[in-house]
Amino acid sequence: MENIWDIDLNYTGENDYSSFFRTNGSFHGYPAKAFPKMVNAILQLIQSQYNINTVLDPFVGSGTIGLEAKYAGLDFIGSDLNPLSILLARTKVLTVNNTDYTIKEIERFLDEELSASLISEDDIPNFDKIDYWFKKKNIQQISIVKKKIDIFLSARKKKDREQFALILLTALSATIRKSSLSRNDEFKLYRMSPIKIKEHNIDSKKEFKENVEVILDMLQKIKFNQQTESKAEVYFSNAKKLDYMKNRKADLILTSPPYGDSKSTVAYGQYSRLSIQWLGDLIEKYLNIPIMTDNCDEVLLGGGSSITNSSSSKVLEESSTLSSLYDVMNKKVEYEKGRYREALTSLKELKSNNKYKASATLIRSFSNNHLLWGLVTERLRLTIFRKLKEKGNISDKKVKELSKYQALEKMKFLERGNKKQFYKTYKMVIENIPRVIETIRRKILSYEKRKREVMHFFEDLYDVVLKTDEVLNESGIQAWIVGHRTVMGDININFERILSEWFSNLGYVNITSLSRDYSFKRLPHSINSTILRNEEIQTMLQEYILIVQKNR
User: Fold this and answer.
1) Domains held by the chain: number
2) How far apart, in Å, are the Cα atoms of 295 and each of 25, 82, 277, 358?
C-alpha cells in the first residue's frame, strides 16, 4: 500500500514569496522563513486526510503559513511577540478592499504628496546610534517619507486606514533595512566595512516607491489566485498564553518555532530593531501593535525576561531525550570548567616567569595545553584585527584573513623564530595575559549559564505545547517544523524527538515525521568555534516535520 506521506520535500530553486506564484521582487526580508512549497504540500496532505477548517500558528514570523492557509481556503489565526513580524504577517495575509481606489490613492501619494522634501528637525528621529547605522542623506530621506506617511494615514477614513498603513509601513521597513549600514546578509546588527560604507549609495525615496509597487503587485496576485474567501487574524501575543483564542478551537496547529533562544540562534530582535526604532510610533498609532521594547529578543522563548510556568523537573520528566541531554550538558560543563581552570593555572605560571625562562615555559605550556594555545592565539588575533580595522582601507574579509594568518605566524615565532621575533611575540603575549585570564574566567561561568539558557528555552517551549493542546479540537492535528541544533560546541539537540515524547505523554498519536535538507532558510551551515576561529562547528543542515494527532 502506498504511503501518502512518502513525499520529497527537498525542493530546488528560489524560496519564493508563495507556492502559487513567482515574483521578481522581494516583499520584505525575514530570518528563517519557512519554504512555501513545503507548507503547501503539508497542508494539502493533511486536508486530504482530516477535516480541517481553522489553522493556528503561534509563531507566525513573516506570515508564510498564514498566506498558504488562506490560499488553501482555510481560516487562519497567528501570533508573535515581534512587532515587525505582526506588521509583515498582517500585510502578507491582507485582502485589499476596494482595490482600484486603494491603488489609485497610493499612486497619488507616491506621485504628489511624497514629492515634497522639507521637514523640520523635530521630524528626524534621534534614537541611539542613528548616525552609526545610517548616512545623513538617508536619515533625511527616510524622515521625509515617514512624515508624509503619517500625514497621509491621519487623513484616511478609519475603515481604510489599516490596509494603507500595512502597505506603506511594510514598504518603508524594507527601505530602512536596505538603506542602513548593517550587513543585509546577517541576522544580527553588524556594520558594513569602511569600503562597503563608501560604496553604499541608496536613494531611500526611490527604494520606498519601488517597494510599494512590489507589495501592491503581490497583493493583487494573491487576490487573483485566491480560490476561496477565508479569514485571517494575526495578533501580538505570547505563544505561551494564546489569550486571543478565548473559547475558540483550532483544527490544525502548523508552526515553525524558534530553534533556540534568540541570543544563540536567530536574533529576531536585532534583525527587527532598526525598523522598530524608526517606525515603532506609527506601528503603534495606526495598527495598534504594542511596542514594549526595540529589541524583542529578551521576551521571546528562552529570553531573559521570559517567565516560565513549567519547572525543569517537569519538562525533563516528560522527555527521556531531554533528560539525557541535561545529563550530557552537566558532564560537559564540569569537563570544560576543568580544562579552563587548568589553562588558568598554566597562564599564571607563565606570567610569574622571567623572560629568560620564558621560551621553555611557553613551549611546554602550549604543547601540553592546546586550549591555552588557542586562547592566546585568539587574543593575539583580536589585537591584530583591531589594529588592521583602524586603518579603514582593508575589506572585512581581508582583515579577518590577515589577522588570523599573522596571529598564527607570531605563535610559531615562540617555538622557532629568531631572538628578535621571539621576544617581540613574547612581549605581546605577556601584555595580553590579563585579557586571556578574563576570557577564561568568563568562559568558566558561561558554561553553567549556557546550560541554564538551554533549559529555560525548553521550559518555555513546553509551556507553548501545553497551551496549543488546550486550544486544539478533539482529534485535531499538530504539525511542527523544527531543526536539530548544536550547543556547547558539540552537543546535538534532537528537537523533533523531544517534541514527539512530549506529545506522546499528552496522549497524542504519531502520524509521521518527515525531513528535508536546508537550502533556502537563511541559516549558517556552520559557525566558527569561539576560540580558534578556524574550526567549524556544524549547525542545522536538515529540518524535520513532526505530525501528531490528539487522541482524547
Assistant:
1) 1
2) 28, 9, 9, 48
